[in-house]
C-alpha cells in the first residue's frame, strides 16, 4: 500500500490545499464582535447520533502508518470539542433525527475532503480515508495576509506560519486570530496548537462550521434548515443543501462548474449518510450551478 500511496497523497494534498487560497477574501472585519465569548456551554448530545463504532466505520484509515495524522483525531477529542458547540447537530428547528444526522454527516464529509488521504482505487474506496492529514505539507507561504496584518487586529507574529491545520485546514492569520479568540487559545502566537492538540483542532473546525461570515451564512444554519436565501442568493442558485456548504467553504474554486474536489465532498457525504442512517440527503448536493460568494 505504501508504494502507490505517497504520490497520490501528494496529489490529494495539493488538490485540497488549493482551496486555502480562497480564504483571501473572507471578510475578517468585525469578526471579533460576532464570535467573542460564544460557545462556552456544553451538554453533548452527539454521541447518540455518532457512536464510537460508527466513527470508526467512517474513518477506516485515519490511524494507518501511512497517514500523518495517525493517532491524532480520536473520537473522544471530537466529542470534547463538540461539547462546546451545543447547537451542532441539535439546535431549535432541527431537532428531528434525520436533520441532525444530516448535519453531522455533512460536517464530517467536509472535514474529510479537507484531510483526505484517499485516491480512486484506495483500499475500502476513496471515501474511507478522511482525517488522514492534520497539517498542510510544503505550504507555499506563511499565509500572513498583509492587509489584515497591517490593520493590526490580526497582526502576524514573528516567524509564525498560518498554513492549513486541523480538520478544516484553518489557514490565514485573519482566521487563526478570531478562532483563537473565540476558543481561548493563542491563535496568532501559537498557531501550532491546532496541529498539536486534537481537541483544539476539532474546535477550530466546528467554530468554522457554526459561524456565519456575512454575506455567507454558517454551514450549520444551512444544514439545520435555518438559512433563508435573499434575492442575490436566489439569483445565484444558492439555495439550501449540502452543495451550499461546499460553496461556503471553497466555492470560489469548486463551484459554478464541475470540480473533482466538490464531487469528493459529495462522495463522503453519501457514504456517511448511509453509515448514519440518513433517510434523505436533501436537495442540491453539489454546487456546480451555484455562483460563489
Ligand atoms: C526568525 O527566524 C530567523 C531565521 O531563523 C531568526 O534569525 C530570527 O531571530 C527569528 N526571529 C524571531 C523574532 O524569532
Ligand atoms: C441556476 O440553475 C439553473 C438550473 O440548473 C441554471 O440553468 C442556471 O444557469 C443557474 N443560474 C446561475 C446564475 O448559475
UniProtKB/TrEMBL annotation:
<protein>
    <recommendedName>
        <fullName>chitinase</fullName>
        <ecNumber>3.2.1.14</ecNumber>
    </recommendedName>
</protein>
<dbReference type="Pfam" id="PF00182">
    <property type="entry name" value="Glyco_hydro_19"/>
</dbReference>
<keyword id="KW-0326">Glycosidase</keyword>
<keyword id="KW-0732">Signal</keyword>
<keyword id="KW-0119">Carbohydrate metabolism</keyword>
<dbReference type="GO" id="GO:0005576">
    <property type="term" value="C:extracellular region"/>
</dbReference>
<feature type="domain" description="Glycoside hydrolase family 19 catalytic">
    <location>
        <begin position="200"/>
        <end position="210"/>
    </location>
</feature>
<dbReference type="GO" id="GO:0016998">
    <property type="term" value="P:cell wall macromolecule catabolic process"/>
</dbReference>
<dbReference type="InterPro" id="IPR023346">
    <property type="entry name" value="Lysozyme-like_dom_sf"/>
</dbReference>
<dbReference type="GO" id="GO:0000272">
    <property type="term" value="P:polysaccharide catabolic process"/>
</dbReference>
<feature type="disulfide bond">
    <location>
        <begin position="144"/>
        <end position="156"/>
    </location>
</feature>
<dbReference type="GO" id="GO:0006032">
    <property type="term" value="P:chitin catabolic process"/>
</dbReference>
<dbReference type="GO" id="GO:0008843">
    <property type="term" value="F:endochitinase activity"/>
</dbReference>
<dbReference type="GO" id="GO:0004568">
    <property type="term" value="F:chitinase activity"/>
</dbReference>
<keyword id="KW-0624">Polysaccharide degradation</keyword>
<keyword id="KW-0378">Hydrolase</keyword>
<keyword id="KW-1015">Disulfide bond</keyword>
<feature type="disulfide bond">
    <location>
        <begin position="255"/>
        <end position="287"/>
    </location>
</feature>
<feature type="signal peptide">
    <location>
        <begin position="1"/>
        <end position="23"/>
    </location>
</feature>
<dbReference type="InterPro" id="IPR016283">
    <property type="entry name" value="Glyco_hydro_19"/>
</dbReference>
<feature type="domain" description="Glycoside hydrolase family 19 catalytic">
    <location>
        <begin position="67"/>
        <end position="89"/>
    </location>
</feature>
<dbReference type="InterPro" id="IPR000726">
    <property type="entry name" value="Glyco_hydro_19_cat"/>
</dbReference>
<feature type="active site" description="Proton donor">
    <location>
        <position position="114"/>
    </location>
</feature>
<feature type="disulfide bond">
    <location>
        <begin position="67"/>
        <end position="132"/>
    </location>
</feature>
